[in-house]
Design goal:
The structure is a single chain. By secondary structure, this protein is α/β, with parallel strands linked by helices. About 35% of the residues lie in helices and about 20% in strands. The chain has an eight-stranded parallel beta sheet. The chain is globular and about 40 Å long. The two termini are about 15 Å apart. Bound molecules: D-xylitol-5-phosphate and zinc ion. Zinc ion binds next to strand 2.
Length: about 230
């Protein structure tokens, strides 16, 4: 590795989709104290994906509860209608789906103009190549490693090849964008994902339903990604 380029810190982003929402502020604070890097907030509209989850007021509540960057993943049709509300509610990173955005170039520029970091996500069946024209515009690429909509699903192994491919695309273009993975991420799948070049890891079940206290789960995951 070129020693002049310091290795970027890898990110652990617990997804509050699996948190106990009755104690949201407490759960977010505990994530922060346990060493989480970002809080991942999954917004679902009942159209792009079947469930409806939550909106900007939950982002505001997370903002009040912690100082961690808020990583908002919009699983919504026509995200242009939502972006400003989420930016105003305190989202630090806003990720839209390639499949849901007809004017992705414009959408990503609007996110930046609102002062947030811009992200684009692709579903497991969407090829890496669909990102080639926006790679210089994004601060984050989110590769779905399950089909979006639900926590607790099984990791889809064929997505690993796509993560490697996007790592190469980013490196070739000189982009420092985060390469985030989401779905079925846990202690068993992390080594292969790190090896493929991911550097931001969303973890829902493996933080909140790991069978151990979330502090312990976060410590274990942080150790696994710190290598
Ligand atoms: C799924 C969401 C994920 C979800 C991941 O559509 O985008 O962020 O919370 O959950 P786990 O980590 O349980 O697969
Ligand atoms: Zn997500």
């Amino acid at each position: 590795m070129d020693q002049r380029i310091p290795m970027k810190k890898r990110i652990l982003a617990p997804s509050i989709l699996s948190a106990d929402l009755g104690y949201l502020a407490d759960q977010v604070k505990r994530c922060e104290q346990a060493g989480a890097d970002w809080i991942h907030i999954d917004v679902m509209d009942g159209h792009f994906v079947p469930p409806i989850s939550y909106g900007p007021r939950i982002v505001e509540a997370c903002k009040r509860a912690s100082n961690l960057p808020l990583d908002v993943h919009l699983m919504v049709e026509n995200p242009d209608r939502q972006i400003e509300m989420f930016a105003k509610s305190g989202a630090d990173l806003i990720t839209v789906h390639q499949e849901a955005s007809s004017h992705l170039d414009r959408t990503l520029n609007v996110i930046k103009a609102l002062g947030a970091k811009s992200g684009v996500s692709i579903n497991p069946a969407t090829p890496a190549e669909t990102l080639s024209e926006v790679i210089d515009l994004v601060d984050l690429i989110l590769v779905m490693t399950v089909n979006p909509g639900f926590g607790g699903q099984k990791f889809i192994p064929s997505t690993l090849k796509k993560v490697s491919k996007i790592r190469t695309m980013l490196d070739l273009s000189g982009s420092l964008a985060w390469l985030e993975v989401d779905g079925g991420v846990g202690l068993e799948t992390l080594p292969a994902l790190i090896n493929a070049g991911a550097d931001a890891f969303v973890a829902g079940s493996s933080v909140f339903n790991a069978g151990v206290e979330m502090e312990k789960a976060i410590a274990n995951l942080k150790l696994a990604i710190s290598g």
